[in-house]
Design a protein that fits this description.
Blueprint: E1 7-12, E2 15-20, H1 31-46, E3 52-57, H2 77-96, E4 102-106, E5 109-111, H3 113-120, E6 123-127, E7 131-133, H4 147-155, H5 157-166, E8 169-171, H6 172-178, E9 183-185, H7 190-202, H8 206-219, H9 224-238, H10 242-253
Parallel strand pairs: 2-3, 3-4, 4-6, 5-7, 6-9
Antiparallel strand pairs: 1-2, 7-8
């Protein structure tokens, strides 16, 4: 894996844990790190034993965004465009296209493109002392790495513009109120609680969850008719899965289903 020490990938009990591991730089992104993340998400998608993915950061912060020290002075416009299109875009798309649930466990601050990474995940759990910071406007930049797309869909245009324009740190509790995170927990139990959520998802019908993800992602832009058509197509596929048969059988037998992700 590219820059192996900067991105740690491990699988246990059906959950792939991806850890950003540059704590001395608050896990700020380098190009090699972005490639490593993309590779990790691809591995999780291809591994049938992986049924949920957890993303977190080592040390005191989730991710500080782009490591500006990789540029020699002020970045040139074409260099920035290249980084966004050739490195951030494929990494973010590897999350969106992953047909398995992805949870971000946010410790410390998720800033700039680090916030983009967190928002690209399907679910988020934050430590009570963690925060989200859309810091782009604070240095005269615009949201990137998909932040505009995710933020608007999560909180609506007006709130998204407020968050992006003011560039203020958003606490975990405020993030919960706004819908930027799903859960808030203690800092000491963040990873444990996140793993518990991930394992819960790993026991669910993986194929159906992947189809649900696809349907919900397109629903914000598609017409009602197009959405129902997609639901019908996906439902026809879901009804043929082993997990569906197990779910029906468990219902009839009045027991807890044992889904296998098939």
């Amino acid at each position: 894996m590219a820059e192996e020490t900067a991105v740690i990938y491990a699988v246990d009990q059906g959950v792939a844990t991806i850890t950003l591991n540059r704590p001395h730089r608050r896990n700020a992104f380098t190009q090699e790190m972005l490639q490593g993340l993309r590779h990790s998400f691809t591995c999780a998608g291809e591994d049938a034993s992986v049924r949920a993915v957890l993303v977190t950061g080592a040390g005191k912060g989730f991710c500080a965004g782009q490591d500006l020290s990789i540029f020699d002075g002020i970045p040139q416009p074409e260099d920035v465009r290249t980084v966004v299109l050739d490195f951030y875009r494929p990494m973010i798309e590897s999350i969106v296209n992953l047909k398995k649930p992805v949870i971000a466990a946010i410790n410390g601050v998720a800033a700039g493109a680090g916030a983009s990474l967190a928002l690209a995940c399907d679910l988020r759990i934050m430590a009570h002392d963690a925060s989200i910071l859309m810091a782009f406007s604070n240095i005269g930049l615009v949201p990137d790495a998909g932040a505009s797309w995710f933020l608007t869909r999560l909180v609506g245009y007006s709130r998204a513009y407020e968050i992006a324009a003011l560039g203020e740190r958003i606490s975990a509790e405020r993030s919960l109120e706004l819908g930027l995170t799903n859960w808030v927990t203690g800092a000491d139990t963040l990873v444990e609680d996140a793993l518990s959520r991930a394992r819960q998802l790993a026991e669910r019908p993986t194929v159906a969850l992947g189809m649900t993800k696809a349907a919900l992602l397109q629903a914000t832009e598609a017409t009602l008719d197009a959405t129902i058509l997609l639901e019908a197509t996906l439902q026809a596929q879901a009804v043929a899965t082993a997990d569906h048969r197990e779910g029906v059988l468990a219902f009839v037998e009045k027991r807890t289903p044992r889904f296998r992700g098939q």
